[in-house]
Hints:
- By secondary structure, the protein is of the alpha/beta class.
- Helix content is 56%, strand content 10%.
- It contains 35 helices and 18 strands.
- The strands form 6 sheets. The protein has a 6-stranded mixed beta sheet, sandwiched between helices. Strands 6-5-8-9 form a 4-stranded antiparallel beta sheet, with helices on one face. A two-stranded antiparallel ribbon has the order 1-4.
- Strand 5 and strand 6 (387-398) form a beta hairpin.
- Helix 1 packs parallel to helix 6 (170-177) and helix 23 packs across helix 26 (686-697).
- The relative contact order is 0.10.
Amino acid sequence: MEKSLFRYIWTHSRRDQLIVCAVVLASLPFYFMSLDLPRQIVNQAIQGEAFREGNPTAPFLHLTYDWPVWLGGGTLEIFEGFQVTRIGLLMGLSLLFLFFVVVNGAFKYWINVEKGILGERMLRRMRFDLFSMVLRFTPEALRTVKSSETATIIKDEVEPIGGFIGDAFITPIFLGTQAITALLFIMVQNVWLGLIALAVIAIQFIIIPRLRRELLRLGRQRQLASRQLAGRIAEVLDGIEVVHVHNAYNWERAEIGHRLFDLFTVRLKIYNRKFFVKSLNNFLAQLTPFFFYAVGGYFALRGTLDIGQLVAVIAAYRELPPPLKELIDWDQQRLDVQVKYDQVTQHFAEERLGPMVEARQDEEEDTPLVGPLVGEGIRVAGPHGDMIIEGGAFAVDLPASVALISNGGTAASMMARIVARRTTEFSGQLRIGDRDLLQLPHAVAGRRIAYAGVDPILFPGSIRDNLIYGLRSKPLGKVVESKRDMDRRIAEALRTGNPLESISDQWVDYKRIGAKDENDLDRILIDLLERIGMGDTIYLLGLAGWIDPARDSALAGRLVEARQRLRETFRSNGMSDLVEPFDPERYNSQATIAENLLFGVPISDEFKGRQLAENAQFRSAIRRAGLTDGLVRMGLQIAETMTEIFEGLPPGHSLFEQFSFIGAEELPEYQKILRRYARGEGHLRREDRTRLLALPLAYVEARHRLGLLDDGMTDRIVGARGLVREVLEKADPEGVEFYDPEKICAAAPLRDNLLFGRVSYQVANARARVAQAVATVIRELDLLEDVQRIGLDYDVGTAGRLLSPQERASVNLVRCLVKRPDILVVDGALAPFDEARGQQLMQLLLQFFQQQSLFMVLPNDRQAGAFDVQMRFRDGQIIIDNTAHPPLGRAKPGPEAERITGEVA
């Protein structure tokens, strides 16, 4: 980053700054003529100086130029003008004044919008430059840099800088060339002229607030987009190690560039709307002088208005600007922004940054990392000055499996990080053949080396997105995009130094993993997950996932067939009592009253949970169906029963979970409602009725068994379904997706679509038996792969928190395997698993990497015999032991390993 803010601004926006300044200078003649016109109107038209010689007409728009004496003198007539009467001259000059008002307003509008666009472009460039520096933070710098602070700097602290950039050069020039601005002060000298001014002001108060409503919406949209941008930047910073390991620099740059482009588009709309409103407001304010000159002058000619009064009105309306004050404010803003800019440059100091990450293709040949791995003079110091490795030297022929045996020390983990290029805090040299490992281009290292550490880092998104992260190093093909959108996006990228690539391009390298297309890639991912031990998890996640029937109609049809097959299986095997199916004509005793009334799945939040009881349309429907009073009475009974059951129980007791109507913190409120009801002799407040209504909506007779439902009530609930559906579809057609026995409900999970009912609470072990039946039908209809593919869409949550530690570790390992590295470094990645499972995974990795290199940190010697080479650390020295006989199968990989690992390109 440039140390000087003004140098940075001038370097990247010189052309745009000069263009705007040129327009500012070009506007000065128009501004000058607009100031001179009132004098001409008063002197020539109103006071009649143009008609003093008795001429009935005078020239209008007579343009001449007087030559200087040193050029010979004389007058050059450019245009002789039009001969008009006195009223014609008055109206002509007034209309000319109005024309210059419009022209000057257009100049101001264009200048302000261009300043805003210029500032936004520079803000986009600055944020992208800072994000590019984030990708260059060294592993050592990341230990001291707080991700939240860095994200705040990029999101918030550069915001005022971007706002100032458009004013940096243009504002002082603009203020310096215009010495007078408007000071709104109206001195009403005439009732009619005052009414005219009042009418214009009234119009302003009516129109302008309406136009500003859109600005408020865009402002909220901008705030949300900025917040999401900061969150994504923080995520990338927290997971920067994965970006380095998997060479995802270009993908992350393009992804952030896309977010910045969306934010730029929103802010551009704000600027256009903002300055349109401002220009319209200025136009309405300047419309008053037009009426003063035209109407007031007409009154003066008729003798009903004194010339002095008219001049006083016009003079009072003119304003005297305070340019000096605005220049002082500008200078104060400049100082504040410079301080913020200095803080930014200090945070992104050069010593924190690694080598420049180029988006271009590296010139060095991307060849496999095989041959002798030689370490010379490796020295690593501990945090307290002690030497972890001192004078370490070794040689290992790659490919090989290498066990880094820690024996309780940190040397093995440090060596693993050195081999994986996860640290630069060591001296000495590490070479593979004749290539220095640390000097390898980032693209080559990210392609050829993978690292699985003790704390796997996952990004928010689907499991699939995380698995193929290492395949997104560069775009390999373009998607169809309208030429207009593409040209606009590329033009803005060029002007702001952002990447030209789009995140809509084809980023996944199918060739690297040996896949033909997206479906083939999913099959490979599922196969790897099954082998790593996550097959059942992906299947269960698929059952909990959703499908879009419109996008995958063929699968939707097969799932409806599976639903019918499952129903037949239950009937033929005497298992009909396990699931009570949804039937439009029957009440489902295993479902809540709300589910029975809606007979569908809520999509909008206002129809979910307790918000349903507060929804006016829903309350109207059940009131028309005559259900409100009965449900409120049920709510009273539930409240009375629950307060008796829960009285004296501590929060967190199992009964609160079983009877999930009322939480422990809500008990006092419902007790107050019951006391008010008792004192009021049956009268309830509106808010009390709403609270009580929410309780029975969550009631399931088969589960809670309070005996509150009879046949009459269930029949009335079933009868109210049609009315509820009619009312809710009118209020919000997309608020609830209603059940259809012949269709898939996109809002319901796959498991619910297959069952199309609710598992019985009254049959022992029902859920396990139903799950087994579902699995059987899915395999019979060859739907297992489709279900697992849906499981790949499961969102892992922030930092993978929606997955267990074992699942996160499994996804991380498969992510490393997917990109087929020449060297895989495993440092604590198997820690979440128990000893037996860890042993199985180790053997699996050894099988996968029979033709590539595997470096694994082991706690002791017990499993080291399975590796080709054992690397031990003793008294700061590195000791290499080769296995006398290579592990079985090392010399020749099995067909399964060949299929998974493939050949290294």
